[in-house]
């Protein structure tokens, strides 16, 4: 599908499936706007302070070819990038507690969505991921922070736009 | 394999769509026809896009004209 709208100034939000034992969206459905946008509900929003860089890593496999002036850099190893996010720690926040439980488990796959919108048009980046760490930073002089890292599963991500 | 079966397999996989599509023996012409008719906002479209990429319609080169 073509997307011709430039988002000159947009805000991004992070959403996740709710529930302790979610069934993540399949790989193909992660690229279907209607499917993933249905998960972008207020109850599933993770109250992050800022959205870190998202997309794919710049990992490449490099090959030198004998007799050739140029080699190959093939992005076969490029994978969805991990995101370390920071939230103000609210011990009773449902989604932060879900992230804490996911980190404690280490084997719960959940669908996450970064929704970038200018108020009218939206771009969704959806991926399935596990939580790899969960820390509370309670340094005095500032509000306590919950910091955790979202590690996407390989090949399980998709982009979609509002039709 | 009929296209509908291949689409169902792709729609339910958690693996790489490109890799799974390579292993599905579908007819390239049928896949291309189905892809042309698919709704761009549907999961069928995403699956058929992977199928068409994995199974392109073969380009048959014209026979070389015999030299006189």
Outline of the structure:
The complex is a heterodimer of chains A (163) and B (68). Chain A is mainly beta and 163 residues long.
What does the overall shape of chain A look like? globular
Query: Structural class of the secondary elements of chain A?
Result: mainly beta
The biggest beta sheet of chain A is recorded as: 6 strands, antiparallel
Q: Taking Cα atoms only, what radius of gyration of chain B do you get, to the nearest Å?
A: 15 Å
Within the CATH hierarchy, at the fold level, what is the topology of chain A? Pnp Oxidase, Chain A
Oligomer description: heterodimer
Helix count, DSSP H or I runs of 4 or more residues of chain B: 4
Q: Largest sheet of chain B, described in full?
A: none
State the distance separating the first and last CA atoms of chain A. 8 Å
Number of helical regions of chain A: 2
Helical amount of chain B:
40-55%
Overall tally of structural domains of chain B: 1
The interface involving the most residues is between: A-B, 18 and 17 residues
The fraction of residues in strands of chain B falls at under 5%
Low-confidence sequence ranges of chain A: none
Distance between the termini of chain B: 46 Å
Uncertain regions spanning at least 5 consecutive residues of chain B: none
What is the H/E order of chain A? Answer: EHEEEEHEEE
- Class by SSE composition of chain B: mainly alpha
What is the CATH class designation of chain A? Mainly Beta
Number of strands of chain A: 8
């Amino acid at each position: 599908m073509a997307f011709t709208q430039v988002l000159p100034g947009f805000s991004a939000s992070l959403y996740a499936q709710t529930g302790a034992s979610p069934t993540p969206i399949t790989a193909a459905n992660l690229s279907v706007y209607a499917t993933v946008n249905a998960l972008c509900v207020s109850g599933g929003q993770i109250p992050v302070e800022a959205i870190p860089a998202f997309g794919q890593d710049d990992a490449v496999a490099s090959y030198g070819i004998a007799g050739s002036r140029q080699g190959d850099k093939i992005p076969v190893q490029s994978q969805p990038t991990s995101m370390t996010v920071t939230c103000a720690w609210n011990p009773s926040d449902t989604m932060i507690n879900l992230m804490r439980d996911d980190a404690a488990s280490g084997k719960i796959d959940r669908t996450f969505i970064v929704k970038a919108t200018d108020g009218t048009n939206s771009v969704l980046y959806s991926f399935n991921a596990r939580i790899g760490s969960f820390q509370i930073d309670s340094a005095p002089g500032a509000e306590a922070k919950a910091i955790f890292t979202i590690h996407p599963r390989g090949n399980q991500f998709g982009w979609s736009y509002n039709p | 394999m009929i296209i509908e079966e291949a689409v169902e397999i792709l729609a339910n996989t958690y693996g790489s769509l490109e890799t799974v599509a390579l292993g599905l023996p579908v007819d390239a012409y049928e896949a291309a026809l189905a892809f042309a008719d698919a709704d761009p906002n549907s999961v069928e479209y995403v699956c058929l896009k992977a199928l068409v990429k994995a199974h392109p319609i073969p380009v048959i080169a014209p026979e070389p004209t015999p030299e006189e």
